[in-house]
Every structure is written in C-alpha cells, then in structure tokens.
Amino acid sequence: MEGIIPLYKPKGMTSHDCVFKLRKILHTKRVGHTGTLDPDVTGVLPICIGRATKVAEYITDAGKAYEGEVTIGFSTTTEDASGEMIARKTVNRVMNRDEILKVLQGFTGRINQTPPMYSAVKVNGKKLYEYARQGIEVERPTRTVEIYSIELLDDRENFSGEQVSFRFRVSCSKGTYIRTLAVMIGEALGFPAHMSYLSRIQSAAFSLADCFTFEQVEEKMEEGKIKDILYPIETALAHLPKYRINDKIAEKVKNGAVLPTPDSCMNETKPIVVETESGQALAIYIHHPGKPGMMKPSKVLRSIE
Fold first, then answer.
1. What is the reported pLDDT for 83?
2. Is 154 a catalytic residue?
3. Which fold does the domain 242-300 belong to in CATH?
4. CA gap 211, 200 in Å, rounded
5. Which of 74, 136, 215, 276 could form a disulfide with 131 if both were Cys (CB 3.0 to 4.6 A apart)?
6. pLDDT tens digit string along 67-78?
7. φ, ψ (nearest 5 deg) of residue 131
C-alpha cells in the first residue's frame, strides 16, 4: 500500500492523532502527515502511506491556502480562540471596507513573523509550547514568510460593534502562521485581535474537494477499495520542475548516479523530479554543491528491485 490520502482533518484532533487513527484503519505503521495543523483547525491534511512518506517534505514545503476569521477587540495567549484573553480594547469606531482592504493588501509579499509561544517551533531543542506551558517566555526567532494573495470574504461596507469579525482567504508559503497574521491585521487597525476560525483549503496539489473523511477511508478499507482514494506519489510533486529521461538513464538514476543538469533546469532553485518517459517519478535531484553543471540525487524513490 502506497500513495497519498488527502484527509479532511476534523476539529479537535492533532495531526499526530490523525496519523495514529489512520495507522489503525489501514493496518500499517508507515504513515506520516505533511505539516502540523492545530487541533482547532480543520481542512486539508495530506497523509502519506508507505513509500509515499519519502515525499512528505515536498508537500510540506509547497504553498498553502486558508480561509480564516479575525476577531478584533481582544487578543489571547495562543493567538486563537482557545487561549486566555490577555488584552482587550473595545472597537470604538467604524471601520470601512477600504481601510480593511488597504491593511490586508499591506501584508502581501514578504513579511516578517515571530512565531507564537504556543507553537511547535523549536528553541534550544525544545518546542515553544513546552516553554509556554511552564510559563517560561523565551526569545523567538523572527522568520520571513511570503503572502501570495489575501482576499476579504465579507461584502460589508462598514464594520462596527464592540468586537469586529471578518473572514479572509490567504495563499501563503510554508511556515506562515495565520494566527499571527490575524494578530498583525488587528495591530495594523489599532486593536488587539486573534484568529477565531481557520480551515486549510489547499496544500500543494490537494484541495478540500479532493479530501476524504475518516468514515470514507474506513468504508473504502472495508470494501477492499482503498486504492481508489490513494493518490500517486507524482501528485505530491506536481509543483516541482521535471526532467524526463529514457530507460537507459533510468537505470543509472535508480542506482543514485550523478547526472548533468539539463539546460531547462540550470536556473532552478527547487528540487528537480527525474521521471521516466511515462511520467513515473524515479528520484528527486538537487544541484551538486561541488560539481558545477551537475546534479545529484537527494532522494531515490524507486530503486532497482
């Protein structure tokens, strides 16, 4: 059994909980997720089975898209609705649509974020949330992420009330904290804020429309039709550049050979998928650090049997 199941992650489960449950349903230990989703977050969680676990990192590294809601008026310890309130300020003015659109557009492109204390980012070998649970505040590394697009999902012209909430859709790079983005949006509008809802709607090539629930996975397993919902390894690599080779070179690739970099991939910064003439992914290659014009395998996906 190998391939990728785009799971619809329900609210209240960690990504690890999802992996544990699927191991029991599928009767296999070789199961891995492709990027942590907080328990309160729902949506697309691609799960890699068998040999597909080799490509999990390439799904993790690909872009993501989310639909979220920011609530302006108070902030929390966790930057989402599950945390304790730490600051409050009544929204004492009317915000108009143009003001909010201008703020949202101001976050497109590269931005700097400081990960929240309640996150899995490691500092000195320990996850930040472990420090947070002990009440210890540590210095957190600022990271640069990219917001490809951000859209307001609310047709109101004016926003008013003691608290103001509105939904948005965002497409972003790996490592973006939408919780932190919600806080930053509030700060730009002059108020404490938090993320009150979040769903991941896209991860690499997988969207909500592709997803299956636990119940559907169990049903397919019982029917002996689990292969019907397993996407091939190649789907996970759809966003990466390709280099198609003939059968003779394919044998060398399966043995981990160093290859000349094709002209079409010479300026690529992403890993390169080396594939057969029929489109089967054989290996992931990267530019050779010590041999200009050559590339070496980072991962061989299919070796000689």
1. 87
2. no
3. 2.30.130
4. 11
5. 136
6. 999 999 999 988
7. -65, -45
* CA distances (Å), origin 126, targets 117, 132, 259: 12, 11, 39
Scanning the structure block, which residue is given the tokens 């304790």?
84
Assign domain 64-203 one CATH number from 3.40.1180.10, 3.40.50.880, 3.40.50.720, 3.30.2350.10.
3.30.2350.10
The whole model's pTM is what? Answer: 0.88
Higher pLDDT: 84 or 188? It is: 188
- Please identify, in words, the CATH class of the domain defined by 3-62+204-236: alpha beta
pLDDT of 304 over the 70 cut = no
Q: How far is CA 302 from CA 96, 243, 295, in A?
A: 56, 16, 18
Cα–Cα separations (whole angstroms), residue 30 to 1, 244, 280: 9, 29, 21
State both tokens at 119: 């996150």
What's the CA gap between 120 and 129, in Å, rounded? Answer: 6
Bridge-based pairing of strands 74-76 and 85-88 is: antiparallel
- Least confident range from 51-55, 136-140, 252-256: namely 136-140
- How many CB atoms neighbour CB 23 within 10 A? 15
pLDDT digits (tens, 9 = 90+) for 209-240: 999 999 999 999 999 999 999 999 999 999 99
Q: Mean pLDDT score of the chain, rounded to an integer? A: 92
- Using DSSP's 3-state secondary structure scheme, residue 146 falls into strand
Q: Show Cβ contacts of residue 280 under 8 Å, excluding neighbours closer than 6 positions.
A: 234, 302
* 92: Cβ contacts below 8 Å, ≥ 6 apart: none
Q: What whole-number distance in Å separates Cα of residue 173 and Cα of residue 150? A: 12
Contact 152, 168 (CB under 8 A): yes
**Whether the predicted pLDDT of 305 surpasses 60:** no
Mark out the alpha helices in 35-192 (DSSP H runs): 56-61, 97-105, 128-133, 178-189
